[in-house]
Design goal:
The complex is a heterodimer of chains A (198) and B (129).
Chain A lengths: L1 H15 L3 H4 L2 H40 L6 H26 L4 H12 L9 H11 L6 E2 L1 H31 L7 E2 L1 H14 L1
Helix pairs in contact in A: 3-4, 4-5, 7-8
Chain B lengths: L1 H31 L2 E2 L1 H28 L4 E2 L1 H6 L5 H20 L7 H14 L5
Helix pairs in contact in B: 1-2
The chains are: A mainly alpha (198), B mainly alpha (129).
Chain lengths: 198, 129
């Protein structure tokens, strides 16, 4: 599988984009970043399989309890999860096999932005939690709105972690406990402002 | 009886949330070279759970105020009304989604999708091809 794909991008790349210059930098950069990536990617692969498991088990659970009023978002969400998995597998292949040319650029881009790797909360779970919170059980939510809520909650969690890391740095500079572990007290300090901001 | 059932369900939902938050935090920590205590993850789960239930009540209220029984993207955008940074994040996200959907064939969409599309087309005065 990999050898034909490696040869194709090379050939394609030569004529369309230009230089031998660009071929050089990507190769060493992937080589240097590879060990660090290897660790996180394997864990990503592991989590993706478990996510798949939970995704497989959840829809049946929901239909059994009959609580979700809208069915189309769930199906779309399930599709979304599958796409995510495929993306991660692709990344895995790119990281381990070190393809040259445009494919490395494609591999580096998601690693740089990293927002697209996986949602903080699985869409199915978030939909269930939202419907649980509605007082009117006939309330429905659009698919697009659902994914925007997903983004909103992901931003919330990311922000919480980032602020906690910031609090930890502060605390360590002030001479507190310094084992580098995020503590509940960090969260306690940031929670009021965080909730006000969201 | 009903109370215990409801609380049981809540507990199960919370543990599901705990699991996914835990995984997300672990990933973030690997990326940023940090560590998090299990207590931190538990507390964060509690915070997120509360935030989600507040959010869902807000969304319901917004939609009802607009005289709808369906939450639209506009209602979600209202969540970010007090935070400009967040608003721009969500706006770019919505634009990305719409760009992707525009590229994908719109006719294959389900009922809800189609309705959304039609509404968008009408709003901006551009017809579907």
């Amino acid at each position: 599988m990999p050898p034909p794909t490696t040869s194709n991008p090379m050939k394609r790349k030569g004529p369309t984009f230009q230089p031998p210059r660009q071929v050089k930098p990507p190769a060493p950069s992937t080589a240097t970043s590879k060990p660090a990536k290897g660790g996180s990617k394997t864990s990503a692969a592991r989590t993706s399989t478990s996510a798949r498991k939970s995704a497989a088990s959840r829809p049946s659970f929901q239909s059994a309890t009959n609580l979700i009023s809208s069915s189309s978002p769930e199906q779309d969400d399930a599709d979304g999860i599958d796409d995510e998995d495929e993306e991660m597998e692709d990344e895995d292949v790119n990281a381990t096999q070190r393809r040259p040319g445009p494919s490395t650029a494609a591999a580096l881009e998601p690693a740089a932005s990293q927002d697209t790797t996986r949602p903080a909360i699985p869409p199915n779970l978030l939909a269930r939690l939202l419907h649980e919170g509605f007082e009117d059980k006939d309330m429905k939510i659009q698919k697009e709105a659902m994914s925007v809520v997903g983004k909103y909650m992901e931003t919330f969690v990311r922000e919480a972690i980032a602020r906690a890391a910031f609090e930890r740095e502060d605390a360590e500079r002030g001479g507190g406990i310094s084992d580098g572990f995020l503590q509940v007290e960090d969260l306690e300090k940031l929670a009021p402002q965080l909730v006000l901001d969201f | 009886m009903a109370d215990t059932e409801a609380s049981l369900r809540e507990e199960r939902l919370k543990s599901a949330l705990w699991y996914s938050i835990g995984q997300f935090v672990d990933e973030e920590c690997l990326r940023q070279n940090l560590n998090a205590t299990p207590q931190f993850i538990g507390a964060l789960t509690e915070l997120v759970y509360t935030q989600i239930s507040n959010t869902s009540r807000d969304l319901e209220t917004f939609a009802k105020h607009a005289g709808r029984a369906v939450v639209h993207t506009d209602d979600v955008m209202l969540l970010s009304r007090r935070n400009e940074g967040l608003e721009s994040v969500l706006k770019t996200f919505v634009e990305e989604i719409r760009a992707e959907e525009g590229r994908a064939a719109p006719r294959a969409g389900a009922g809800a999708k189609w309705r959304g599309k039609a509404a968008v087309g009408r709003g901006k005065g551009r017809g579907r091809k």
